[in-house]
Amino acid sequence: MIEVTNISKALPGGKKLLDGISFTVRKGEFVGILGASGAGKTLTLRCLNGLLKPDTGSVVVQDQDGSKWDICTIAKTRLRQLRRRIGIVFQGYHLVQRLTALDNVLLGRLGQISTVRSLFYGFTDKERAAALSALEKVKIGALAGARVGRLSGGEMQRVAIARAIFQNPALLLADEPLSNLDPSNAKVIMKLIQPLAQEMPVIGVFHQPEMTARYCTRVIAIKQGGIIYDGDPRLTTHQLVDIYGEELRQIENPPILPTGEAAVLTRNSEDNERNFF
Amino acid sequence: MSEISSNLRVFRRYGRVLLPLAGILLLAQGAAWVCGARWDLVFKGMWSSTTFLAQLLRPDFSAFADMVKPALDSVFIALVGTFIGTIVSLLFALMAASNIAPPWLRQSVRFLLGMERALPEIVILLFLVAALGLGPFAGVVALAIGSVGMLGKLIADAIEELDPVSIEAIQAIGANRVQVIVFGVIQPIIPSIISLSLFRFEYSIRLSVVLGAVGAGGIGLELYRSFVILDYGRAAAALVVTLVLVFLSEHASGYLRRKIKGEGRLQ
Predict the structure, then answer these.
(1) CB B32 within 8 A of CB B180
(2) Residue A96 contacts B, CB cutoff 8 Å
(3) Which of A211, A221, A237, A204 is nearest to A89 (CA)?
(4) Taking CA B212 as the corner, what is the angle to CA B206 and CA B217, rounded to the nearest 5 degrees?
(5) Based on the domain organization, do B73 and B16 belong to the same domain?
(6) Closest by alpha carbon to B213, among B224, B204, B203, B205?
């Protein structure tokens, strides 16, 4: 369980980036955070694993065994311990390009082994087997030995998810995991993330309301650093316009032209095509 | 009226070229006067150098056997010097990168590296010969120190160009400082470290010939000695060996660097 209470963050000049954000996510929930660019989605997510410290408020993470920590006030070494239990999939795919898919998955437990052991890739056979099964879970077990730099975008994102699974996390975060992916690969990734919510709370930042409507159990919308919507993932057009602004309405419902004008457009359609595309 | 304006046009047309040319000639004349260079000396020197070149064109083939060991010495001086230099410069580079080190450390290390670059390797070697005595060891240390100034800065720049998220991705796993540096910083730049140190190796080979003459031994010493005892046939042999050495090392390093670059690309 993760409990976010009233977190705020402001620039030194006083401009508020996050303004009193609160929500609680339990096991079994797959929460999609939506919002226009610059609304504060990624900032919120970064607060959840301590990459960013909010000015006020608290982020309390509760492990399965019942122990609780506030990420905002925790000491540095304790924060490292806690991060081992927080899986995160980054925007794009920030893997070590030179290493194989399997080695990248193994890096997920860097924090859980000693420094010396990690420098010599001293992972046990048991850990290697677990990493391989994580890769099989995302259906790319056959690519375990391939260098990540040679994989496709969708495959790299799957390696990143396998790494998060291998961490055996108490909480899974995803920062725009679908950016750089084509629609069918995006679906595959969502289908892989969705079942993980049965074991841990999953929170993701997305730019695709149609994807969150389909796969998430709950949607939180952020605008200008504050929550404007929290609830059912199936949003109405009216709500989407609230989140993304008036321009969206024009994309969703193109203006209907009177017959006369439409006829003129059809006659000149060839010219129009040349101009527009 | 029209005559003046046409003269002005001619001046505008050619003056842009002629004025700087006259300036350069004047400067050259002044420099020659200061250095004591004279045309008759130039012709005399040309004459004596042709006879000298004629002698150089007849290398002493029996001397080649003696050149193998000094040549290998030079290669090893350059190789070991560059290798040690790369390792040490990696440590300095980490301290000189703004995304890892605090500003005061970065500034002072960068200043130190700049000071080193300002110091010619020959001067370093002369100091080292005084401290360590003549021989390849002084040469190795001189080249290692020389590499640090250049590689330290270039590797630090490569680190600063890293995507900050690749470092954060390792931090987010819960890795400690050492692990973040090894897997988030050093791993992604290994290709550029190898490529930069190979480039430096080319330079070190050429430098090791010069340093050899000053006291580090190797093919440079052989070359210098032959010239001093006026054994031009032997000098020619040493020169041929040096040329082959430099040519081979440049091509080998160029080939390896192209390979490494190719590997980073998506297929």
Answers:
(1) no
(2) yes
(3) A204
(4) 135
(5) no
(6) B224
Whether B100 and B175 map to the same domain: the answer is: yes
- Give the separation between CA B234 and CA B222, rounded to whole angstroms: 9
| Position B256 pLDDT exceeds 80 | yes
The two beta strands, A2-10 and A56-62, are: antiparallel
CB contact under 8 A, B165 and A107: no
Q: What is the pLDDT of residue B262?
A: 66
Q: How confident is the model at residue A252 (pLDDT cuts 50, 70, 90)?
A: low
* Interatomic CA distance for residues A221 and A233, integer angstroms: 10
In a domain, B129, yes or no: yes
> Where along chain A do its domains lie?
2-85+170-235, 94-168
pTM: 0.76
Is B27 within the bounds of a domain? yes
Cα A222 to the chain's mean position, in Å? 15
Residues 6+ apart with CB under 8 A from A39: A222, A223, A224, A225
Q: In terms of CATH, what superfamily is A2-85+170-235?
A: P-loop containing nucleotide triphosphate hydrolases (3.40.50.300)
- Give me the number of domains chain B comprises: 2
Spell out a b/e string for B178-194, using b for 16 or more CB atoms within 10 Å of the CB, else e: ebbbbbbbebbbebbbe
Inter-chain residue contact B174 with A107, CB threshold 8 Å: no
What six digits make up the tokens of B220? 């440079």
A150: nearest CB among B172, B176, B267: B267
- Closest Cβ–Cβ partner in B169, B174, B266 for A94: B169
| Burial profile B22-45: b = 16 or more Cβ within 10 angstroms, e = fewer | eeeeeeeeeeeeeeeeeeeeeeee
Terminal-residue alpha carbon distance, chain A: 49
Residues, chain A: 277
Say if residue B111 is in the same domain as residue B226.
yes
Alpha carbon of residue A165 to chain centroid? 14
Q: Both B11 and B68 in a single domain?
A: no
pLDDT score of A255 more than 60 = no
d(CA A71, CA A60): 6
Residue B51 in any domain: the answer is: no
